Amino acid sequence: MSQDDAKEAWVQKYAKRIFEIWQNWQGPLGVSAEYIEHLEDELRKQYDDHLKRSMIELNYPNGLG
User: CA of 65: how far to CAs of 22, 43, 49, in Å?
Assistant: First the structure.
């Protein structure tokens, strides 16, 4: 797996986790499905910073969603 493939797999994994958690909060307005694109863009920006990537992984572990 190339570095770009690994990055994209990570982005997809954490975008899905974060989006599912937000949906489960069931706030009064909810979360638009289109917002996942924005979330993916933001995660791509954070991937190359090891500290930020680690913080995302720690804050959104398996089993939260």
Answer: 8, 18, 24
Instruction: Give the H/E segment covering residue 59.
Output: helix 50-59
Q: What is the pTM of this model?
A: 0.80
Sign of CA dihedral 57, 54, 6, 36: positive
Q: What is the pLDDT of residues 10-19, one digit of tens each?
A: 999 999 999 8
Q: Which residue has the tokens 């909810």?
A: 30
Q: Which amino acid is at 22?
A: W
Q: What does the alpha-carbon distance between residue 22 and residue 24 come to, in Å, rounded to a whole number?
A: 5
